[in-house]
Structure formats: structure tokens, C-alpha cells
Amino acid sequence: MNNTEQFVNRHNGPSTNDVQTMLKKINAPSLDALIDQTVPAAIRLKKPLNLPDGMSEHAFLNHLRGIAAKNKLFKSYIGLGYYDTIVPPAIQRNVLENPGWYTAYTPYQAEIAQGRLEALLNFQTMIMDLTGMEIANASLLDEATAAAEAMTMLHGLRSRDDVAAGKNSFFVSNECFPQTIELLKTRAKPLGIDLVIGDFKTLTLNDKLYGALLQYPTADGTVHDYADFVARAKANGMTIAVAADILSLVLLTPPGEWGADVVLGSTQRFGVPMGYGGPHAAYFACRDAHKRSMPGRIIGVSVDADGNPALRMALQTREQHIRREKATSNICTAQALLAIMASMYAVYHGVEGLHGIAAQVHRSTALLANELKKLGYKVAEGVFFDTIKLMHTDNVKVHALAEAAQINFRYAADGVGISLDQTTSLDDLNAILAVFAQKVGKPAPVLTSAQLATQPLLVKQRQSAILRHPVFSRYHSETEMMRYIKRLENKDLSLTHSMISLGSCTMKLNAASEMLGLTWPEFANLHPFVPLEQAAGYQELIAGLDADLSEITGFAQMSFQPNSGASGEYAGLLVIQAYHRSRGEAQRNVVLIPSSAHGTNPASAAMCGMHIVVVKCDAKGNIDVEDLRAKAEEHKTDLSCLMVTYPSTHGVYEESIKDITAIIHANGGQVYMDGANMNAQVGLTSPGNIGADVCHLNLHKTFAIPHGGGGPGVGPIGVAAHLAPFLPSHPVVKVGGAQGIHAVSAAPYGSALILMISYGYIKMMGGKGLTEATRMAILNANYIKESLKDSYATLYSGSNGRCAHEMILDCREWKKEGVEVTDIAKRLMDFGFHAPTTSFPVVDTLMVEPTESESKAELDRFCEAMIAIRKEIEEVISNKVDKKDNILKHAPHTAKTVCANEWQRPYSREQAAYPLNWVRENKFWPAVARVDNVYGDKNLVCACPPITSYT
Questions:
Q1: Cα–Cα separations (whole angstroms), residue 97 to 273, 487, 842
Q2: Which end of the chain, C or N, has fewer beta carbons within 10 A?
Q3: How far is CA 606 from the centre of its chain?
């Protein structure tokens, strides 16, 4: 393979000549010498990764085509929350396949994220309208975990009297999806919640029940009238959560109108491919009174410094895990990209389009039911929307005939379930009828379009209006839709504009060749519950990724079920707890967590019902080994584990890490490693080599899955051999260990569709390439550190003065002079850069991670911007400029401000807009001036305001 075909040279930013120049700058004789100076010898791998050489992009795509061909695309009518859908090409091409959308980061810096914030506000408005609820968030991970969040949220809302009275039982309808019931079991047990699973019609209410979950329509398709039950439950002091099918709510009376306190579900069927289980955006809506307890993110309307409308993430829901061990949720991500797709689906189709789709699905189902009755089949009684159940069928014969016709139904002990969707055509209906007619030896009826058009709707239709905001009626032609999507995209800064140097978030290249397969039908259109032989391609891909990541991490086996990093944390802790129980040591419930840990660590431990003991860090940011030793020995009989991040959250390879893991093991505990910083380990060291027992990986960081404007994420866990028997199971598809814990996400392999991105990254980089990426990430970080040393002090570094793949720049001393770290973050926008991570893990600092994908030229531009800002800070400190009326306090500067007729600032327009000459070449204008967070919290508006406010 010639040099230009080597993918590693496409992925890594610096050229060979650049590397030599950068090494000279940082005074390192070679890249090998730099790594020796940075990574402690005691933890280095003794041999290179046992992975093949990297493939070219062309070779990989041919390889992926071969894998795709092994998946069999039958027509699936399995349902259970997953349905085939039509992704509008205008949305597929302009959002899903567009790096302007998929490489953007979580909208913490609102001024350069107004486009995706508007799309997410549209999502919230859509959900509020369809559910009949007062407030909605900007998406959760999947329907099952959303139901679990509802259960725990309502548990937390109990009154003191209810808590004192032991009101601790939660009713779950046995007609809920099986994966939802499974997730509730997972989440309930650590918190001591008693699940009561049964028939809502025969439930005896008692004073221990605090809430209930209902499915609407049910797993078997029945649309119950829950009004009487809800009234009785409310009279009993209970709160009500409802898992509702989003498309059905276009026609059905929404749960908000018959008493629900929380409504949740999946928006997958709004134009998001099934993808063998994910990623999909869950929705979550509740009463306004509960908004401060709602998990996840809420997008709210505020104003900017010029008084213009501006959007932002509202309230404490920037993430609930900032409450650390007091959190009731550990959510650290959303499914933003998928929520954006779902919202665009509603924008594109509008009320009439959605009503037409829902009515078509329902009419098809009604017509099918009538014809099956004529063939002699018994259809379960009751009102239905898109799903029917045939009772007492001969499933063996039906299954054989259906399989021969390449059709999948849902088979139960008492019958066959059939769920239709947007893609179900007349030909499909006739193919279904042909199977059942053959089974009874009768001629197959042939339905016509006229029959379908005249089939009456059998459901009682909702009376309330939906999607009344003009955004849902303006963009129905593709021309208008294309322009609307582009207009929003232009408001957002992404990797298409410049480097995003976020510490702990690893915003590296998401290569086109890694992404291309996402929309191939063989991967995109597979239902997660098809027989395994129909998913042979996926099984090969998942097994290959399992083997590769096990080699990289030094572990025995992976589970891909966790669909976020925080979900991986939670799963890893549950696996550790299951291991202790298997050894008769259930009392081991203490988790040691360093004070520097990311907030999801204590939040996940709290959700597992664990007792959290905080370990001190020393002045250099390292774990205080003696404090750790003392606390491990103090809790020797009840020590469960240590949660540790490596390299540390402070950007340093702690040299005592092997001593740390040895101390934990000597006291009977396990070591859980947070894999957020694996980008500094791959090929040089590994969690297994260091002494960890379990580690979650953020595939959306180290392994190249895009951040997607705040999600999707994937957080698989790798475990040592003794923990493998406890890996997560699933109620529908056999996965996990022999003694596997209950499932931690709705689908057996989590967000399976995007696993191909990491698979492709590893296959094209190869073992040598992956190691070279780690080395290059360390070089880039130390180059920035050296370039900025005269302007910004690095808070922590290793014994040789080197940082790992990221560093913390200390900005604390300037606060007393009136310069906040926020001012630096906002001023960077005027240079066309997203700010580094602000005030984490140390308040009033910037955490910088350049990644290996950025070129020397881009690193130089970033450093020039930071040095220019440092000079502006010096002008404030030396009183050359007013401490309140200066260029930093007014940043960022919008085109509207700079081009206004009047300019009364104490600096020039040119200084504001073009602080360095190269900014002119590719100027990115923030869409709004600095957003007023306090105003947004005091005046919370979480639905679309009048369209005139956007103009």
C-alpha cells in the first residue's frame, strides 16, 4: 500500500516534517523519547498490539460490503417499539450524512449552537403537543431507560410522609414491552423499589404503591381506556407514567389529557432507522411542576446581551449528575442527532403528513385484521392502532411459511403478533395474507388500493390540535426544507470549521469512510429482535469489535449493551456487585471515588445504591495514595471497588497507579476504570495491564463515533475473565454471561448501528496506526502546552514536565481582576474556535485536548488565538481598558452588532470581528451575542416561541 492510501496518514494531522518541528519546539529528541518521558515505564505494554495492519479505505469498504451481505433483510412485523420507517432523503443527506451536523459538540456554548438548539426546541414542542404535556426534555437514550428514569423520578417526588410510611412499590403493567420491564428490574433493585408487575384491570390498590407505568398501546397492540384506572390510582395518591407510541399519538387521545404525570417513549419511527436497535432518541415529558426533577436536558428560550431571543440549555438539566452522589440520574448525554432527525421529520411532514402516515398505518392494520378474520383467524379483542394479535395459532407452521416468504412475525405462547409501519405497502399486506391463507388451505385474498382508501378509522380520534407552530407548516417542499436545515447548520460551529479542543471529550476526526455504511439498508433496516441467523453480518462485526477492543484493553470480553458512557459506568458497577454476591460477599457496597472524578462516577454509584467514600487528591492533582490506603483498609470487609480515571482527569499519568490498584485488590475490592481518557492509552498501556477489572469505553471519543451535537454515544464495558459471567443479559435476545445482570438498555447490543464506525476506525488504523494515534495525541498536547507556557500556566504535569493527551490551563488568578474563564470561552468564538472544557475538573480553568487529528497549522492558529486573548487579559489587569466595558466582556461579537450603524465600544469593529488576519479568510459569526443564563432560568420557556422572534 502506498503512503497516500494508508488511512493513518488521513486520520493523523501532523505531517512527518511537522512532527520534527514540533519535537524541536518541545525539546524532545524523538517521538519515542517524548513517550518515554510521558508514560511511566511500569505501565507500558511489553509488546505491540496483536492487531492486523490497517486497511485502505477502499479495501475496508469492500470488506464492509461483504459483512453487510450476510444480513438478511426480511420484512419484519415484530414491533415491540421498533418499526421500519422512511427516512426522508432531504433529512438523510442534509442531517444524518452531513458533518456540519454530526461533528458538532453538546451545546454548552450556546452562542455557536443556535441551530441545533432550535432543532431540539422543535423536538420539545413536538413532544409536548403530541403527549398533551406541559414540558419535555431534549431526548433520552431509549424507551426502556426513559421508563426507568420515570420510575426513579416519581420515586424521588414522594412526600416525606409517603417516604416515612414506606410507600415504595411501583406498579408495572404486564402489557409493557419486555425490554422495558427488564430495565425497570435493573434500576429498581439497587434503590429498594418493589416492583409489582400485573394486570391493571385486576390490581388491588394499596398504601404502598407510589406510582404506575402503563403502555399505550400495549405490546400486543390494545388501546386501553385507562381513564378509570388513572382516576382510582390518583385517588390512592399515586403518580402515573405512560409509555406511548409516538405515531399513535397523532390519532389517539394523548395521556396528558387523561391524567398522566409523565409520558415517555421512542421517536424512532419518526424517520430514524432501526439500526439493529439504535441509536434512537427517547422522549420524556411531564407536568410543569416536575421540571426541576426531570432527567436529561431541557432547551429553553432566553435573551442575549443585545436583548434578542436566544436559546440555551436550561436550568440544572445541563446535566443532573453535577449533583454527584446526590443525583437521581447519571445521564451525561442525549441522542441529540436522532432527536434532530425526528424533529425534522415532523417539520417536513407537518400535521397533514403525519396524520396521513398514522392513518395509513392504522387503516392497513384494520384491513388486515378484517381479512384475517375472514380466513378464520381469531383476532384479539379490543381497539388497536398498528398491532394485532392472532390467538391460538399453530406457530410452528406459521413460522415455517413466514420464513419461506422472508417475513418475521412476533411469536408468543398464545399466538402471533403483527405490527405494521409506514413502509407497509399493499403488496406487503397481500404477502402476509398469502402466508395465513396457505396455512389454512384457502385462496389468498388480494387487497386493492380502493379498499385501503375506504377503510374507516376504528380508533376514537383525539380532539386537541397538534403542531400548530408555523415551523411545522413552512418547510414541506424540499427546496424550503433544504434551506431551513442549511440555515440552522450555518449557526453552529463544528469540526467542519475548526478544531474543538475539549478536554475529556476527544473531538477527533469522524472519517467519511467510517460513516458510509450507516445508511446501507442491510445495516440500517434490521430489527433488533430478528433471529440471529438473519443478522449474521452484525454478529460478525460485533464479534470482531469485541476481539479488537479486548486486545486493546487487555480484557477478556466486552458488552456493547450500554448506550452511553454513564450507562457503561452503571453496568460496570452492577457487574462488580453481582460478582461479590456470587462469592457470598453481598456486604461489599463501599465505592472509593477520587475527589477529581467526573460527576457521573458518584452519580452512577448512587444509582447502584452504593455507599460513596471520597478519596483526597494531593496538590499535584494525583490521588492521595495514603488516604486511599487508609480508607481501603478501613472498609476492608465492605469494600466493593475503586472508580478511577486514567490518565487522571487532570491530564497526568499517575505513576502510583499500579500501587493504587494493588491496594484495592489487597483489600478485597475491584478496580473500575473510567475509559474517558483511553485516547492516551491505546497501544501504549491498557486498563488490564494497569490492574483494572472493568472499564467502560467512550466509543464516541477514543474510537471515532461522532458526538452528534450532544449524542449519540456508546459506552461498552470490557471485563477481566472473572467478571465475564456477569455481563448484561437481555429478555428477548440471548446475550451476556451465564449469570448475567438484568439488561441496562432496551436493545441487546445497545446502539448497534454505529458500532461499525469504531469497527472501521480500528480496521483501517490497524494496531500500529492506533498506537501512532496515541503518540500523536500526546505530541499535539505537549506542543500546545509548550506554545502557551509564557501565556498560560499548566496546572498539572508529570514528573518530567509533560502532560498526557490533555492539560489544564490555570485562569484562576485573573478572576480577582474581573476576567472570568467564561470571558475567554466567549472571546474564542470571535476567532472561530469552540472553547476548551471550562471549569472542569478545576473551577476557573480551561481543559484542552487537541487530539491527534489536528494539524500543526491548526494547533498554531489555536495557540495564536489564545495568546492574543492573553494580551487582552493583560490590558484589563494593567487597567489599560475598563474592567467591565472591554472586548472580553462584550464577546462574542455578532455580524449584526459589528455592522450596526452605531458603534460605541471602546475598541474598533475590526478588533472585535477580525482580531487576527487569518480570521478574515474563514470568518464564523456567532448567531447571537452572549446569552443571559439567569434570565432564561427565571423565565423558563421550553417550546417554540412565535416564529417572528427568530427573524
A1: 13, 16, 36
A2: C
A3: 20
